[in-house]
Amino acid sequence: MKKQKVIEEVDWMLTDEAKNDPKLNPIDLDVLAILQFIKDGKDTDKNGFFNIILKDGKDIRMSLQGSLKDFGVSCDFSTVSRTVNKLERFGYLEYHRGFYHKDTKSGRWPRIRLIKGTIEKSNQLSNIESECYWIIESTTEEECNNIVRDNKISYCNTEDYSDIAIAQEKEKEKENKKEKLKIKTKEEVKEYFSKKYTNCSWETFLKLNPSVTSFDLPLKDLEDCFQSVKQSV
Asked: Is 20 exposed, middle or buried (0-12, 13-18, 19+ CB in 10 A)?
């Protein structure tokens, strides 16, 4: 059997205590170090928690399993899950499972807090208003806790790559597409204006060229494009 080694690219993120802990094997250390790597790119809440999805999936932008793969460590989800559970039992991290309530379209991301074993980034951010609290619609942290306390979680999807993550990624994608369409439309409008007579007022231009309102832009944006082209002539 090929002997596993800790990834050199993230080895320096680990403390000597973690590296010398006989209870931890190379995959444990890789997971711990990569969690710190992921944390470095995220905001944390006031208690040090940050969002983390364990299982990789088609619509998931970042996950622990996917990040391991990016660093050359291919492992199945059961290995990732067992390792996180082991690290929590030995006091290296604290993990809160995520959930998504389909009826209310609300929930909370899976979250992790690193307790020991890694070297913190010197300028690590801390922001209670970060994405680490939750996410779609307007559910508050208190309401999320009530769902768990009242056992309503039985009606929820609690996968580690949960619906809440997929839903948010899809919303982001829709917004990105809207923005791209808007930019493209503005460029088309400016090209349209550049070929027209613009040495007049906006009101006059509208009367002479009523077809301009067929562009998928608010009237104010159309006027801004008109004035921009007019000033550049």
From this structure: exposed
The pTM (predicted TM-score) of the whole model is 0.59
- pLDDT number for residue 186: 80
pLDDT digits (tens, 9 = 90+) for 175-213: 766 666 666 678 888 888 888 888 888 988 887 777 787
Q: What are phi and psi of 117, to 5 degrees?
A: 100, -10
Q: What is the mean pLDDT of residues 44-71?
A: 86
